[in-house]
Amino acid sequence: MAAMRTYGLAFVSVAAAAIGAVFVYQKYSPDPREAAPIFRQWESEVADDPLAVANLERAFAALGYDFTQVRSGRGAIPRVLVRTVPNDLGQVPEVARRKALFLGSVLPLVLSVNEQITQERATVEVIAKKIRFREELTPSDTSELDRLAKVYRVIDDDESGDITDVSAAALVDELLLRVAPLPVSLVLAQAAEESAWGLSRFALEGNALYGQWVWNDPNGIVPNDRSSEETHSIKAFRDILESTLSYAHNLNTHRAYADFRKMRANMLNSSGHLDGHGLAGTLTRYSGRGQAYVESLRNIIRANNLSALDRAQFSGPTETRTAATGSVTTAAL
Q1: What is the spatial distance between Cα 263 and Cα 273, in angstroms, rounded to a whole number?
Q2: Which of 79, 89, 277, 278 shows the smallest number of beta carbons within 10 Å?
Q3: What is the pTM of this model?
Q4: Considering only CA atoms, which of 166, 252, 247, 257 is closest in space to residue 213?
Q5: pLDDT tens for residues 33-64?
Q6: What was the pLDDT predicted at 158?
Q7: 155 phi and psi, to 5 degrees?
Q8: What is the DSSP letter of 136?
Q9: DSSP class of residue 257?
Q10: Which residue, 261, 266, 250, 283, is CA-closest to 178?
């Protein structure tokens, strides 16, 4: 491991931790139920429950994380996991400050989810290259192709697992459409639109940022305005990271978003970059509002300069901050 450097944190002390301060930094420990590799990559976690705005702002300040600076191209994005929206976010009077806290919390989640997808895509591309040059696939290649085809719903989970009846080339072609990152600006715009900028009941009670409907789910949140003939609810999540993962899987697999995936593939093939403002036009089926919904997303992207984040990346060093020791430990990746 690389050499470590330790710095003091003036505002976090052992005494503060001893008296039960709710502002806590801790090294992220992945839940064994969660999928690798994304969950091993967090530097720090804001572990307050419930989370208050003041503590989130202190956490971001300790990390040197300023969303407005990031958006202007002058700041760094740390690998910080914020699990929930602050429960008092609605009490922040300044609109710009409130928006920056919400977007700053979601942005690292989007980048982390995109990293996992990109790693999976790299596997598909290696297999695609072998097929193109008529190289024989190894058992490991075939197993991974089968796994990804099931994860991304190219084939059903209840199939035998033997993909010999399906052309490997056909599977790879479809996976290259599905296993691809999402445009950051569009994800942030949908999170803002669907959760009322983190203020909706669904966001506060169920960490639901993207308005995903479910049926026959005992943990779903029933909308107050649901009619007696309707049976849907809003899917609830353990945290807003899980919500973001589920949303990404939805866009990458559901047949309603095939046009989104085709346009994304064209963008990646032509320029290598994604345009969230343009891709928003393919999401008329995400909401019953249709084209009006698309225009709402595009207005959010324009008004908040979110297109500037479509090429955003994490900063380099790994940091772990711990309230119990009042120290910051930094190591190169």
Answers
A1: 12
A2: 278
A3: 0.83
A4: 247
A5: 344 444 457 989 997 889 999 999 999 999 99
A6: 54
A7: -125, 160
A8: P
A9: G
A10: 261
Distance CA 138, CA 308 (A): 41
CA dist list (Å): 2 to 28, 78, 113, 259, 317: 19, 19, 26, 46, 11
What tens digit of pLDDT does each residue of 262-312 get? 999 999 999 999 999 999 999 999 999 999 999 999 999 999 999 999 999
Predicted pLDDT of residue 326: 29
Domain ranges (residues) in the chain: 115-178
pLDDT tens-place string over residues 174-217:
999 999 999 999 999 999 999 999 999 999 999 999 999 999 99
Sorted by sequence, the CB contacts under 8 Å of residue 117 that are 6+ apart come out as: 179, 180, 181, 182, 248, 252
With the C-alpha atoms ordered 120, 121, 125, 131, is the resulting torsion angle positive or negative? positive
Q: How far apart are CA 318 and CA 333, in angstroms?
A: 6
Q: Say how far residue 104 (Cα) sits from the centre of its chain.
A: 12
Greatest extent of the chain over all pairs of C-alpha atoms, in Å: 65
Contact 46, 83 (CB under 8 A): yes
Burial of 142 (0-12, 13-18, 19+ CB in 10 A): middle
For residue 139 the two structure tokens come to 């058992």
Hey, what are 279's tokens?
């891709």
Sheet holding 5-8, edge to edge: 5-8, 327-331, 318-322
Collapsing DSSP states into helix, strand and coil, what is residue 5? strand
Our CA angle for 157, 161, 166, nearest 5°, is 100
Q: Across the chain, where does the E strand assignment appear?
A: 5-8, 25-26, 44-46, 80-82, 213-214, 233-234, 318-322, 327-331
- Our measurement of the distance from residue 38's CA atom to the centroid of its chain's CA atoms, rounded to an integer in Å, reads 10
| Of 45, 85, 14, 9, residue with least CA distance to 320 | 45
Query: Cα(50)–Cα(42) distance, rounded to whole angstroms?
Result: 20
CA pair distance 90, 51, nearest whole angstrom: 13
Rounded Cα distance, 61 and 45, in Å: 14
30 pLDDT more than 90: no
